[in-house]
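Hi support team,

I'm filing this because I wasn't sure whether my run with zinc ion finished correctly. The job status page said complete, but I'd like someone to confirm that the output block is well-formed before I use it downstream. Pasting the exact inputs I used:
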Amino acid sequence: MILFFSTFKLSYICVMGILRKTKSVKILLDEFEKQSTAISAITLIERFHLNMNKTTIYRILDKLEDDGFLHSFLGKNGHKWYAKCIGCTNVEHHDIHPHFQCLDCGKVDCLPTDVLIPNIPNRKVDVSQILIQGKCEECFS
Amino acid sequence: MILFFSTFKLSYICVMGILRKTKSVKILLDEFEKQSTAISAITLIERFHLNMNKTTIYRILDKLEDDGFLHSFLGKNGHKWYAKCIGCTNVEHHDIHPHFQCLDCGKVDCLPTDVLIPNIPNRKVDVSQILIQGKCEECFS
DNA sequence: TATTTAATGCAACTTTGTTGCATTAGTTAA
DNA sequence: TTAACTAATGCAACAAAGTTGCATTAAATA
Ligand SMILES: [Zn+2]
Ligand SMILES: [Zn+2]
Ligand SMILES: [Zn+2]
Ligand SMILES: [Zn+2]
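And here is everything the job wrote out:
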């Protein structure tokens, strides 16, 4: 988890993640604070290409995921999406859940619902990524 | 569905799919006949780059999917995979199911098991793509 | 304020997949 | 068998998402 707002010396605490509270990090954190739905890396690049380089965006997202502040998954085209974690740490992500992508507006949300994966004979199930597609609240009327 | 082995005039029956029984089509069909697991487009390109161009491979896979002979899905990196259909037609694919990717050997299989997607309030569920990851029979010992 | 080094920008690259167009080769019918 | 038709192919160029190396910049610390 990000420790920005504490007064501790970050470098002693975080190992792989974000160590410095830069302008770029602040902009991205603010964006995820402002918007409750998931955001694709591509969208962030479009949105902030005047503020920062796409390399910077990819690198910050990567570190925020390491920190347990964001989690990532693939949308319907295999493109990367990010959303805020709830209660994850830099040791482990434990907020694994299905995602819902609207086929009309493209919006993606985290689903609090759990999907039961049945046991599969002779196989050890580790993780499962579930992307449900359909029409979201606004587009379904 | 592919009508290769019938004596009908294909052009009257197929509309969007494959019309001619070319060498490239035969090679790819044979490969899916030979191998029961799913095959990624990338693997096919590696395997047959001496026999045919990658453009040709992508185009044939696309048409075989239209024909209801293959179905496609995305693996863990968002790369495209194909596997044989069971009982699909050029009108509709009705063999939608989860897929299992081994994190050790990378192999992907179709799972006959059905996963129950719960109803989600205020949303119309259309399709769901489920990729389960873990260890396959051979790697799990 | 000077020092340290994490973070950044940039260009070049990689990988997967697509497009346009000239050429090749299945299929059909004479 | 042969000629005509056109689906299928190869090739080169392109597109989009994401990565890498390296010189430069700017947070954090003392
Ligand atoms: Zn998480
Ligand atoms: Zn989520
Ligand atoms: Zn199918
Ligand atoms: Zn399948």
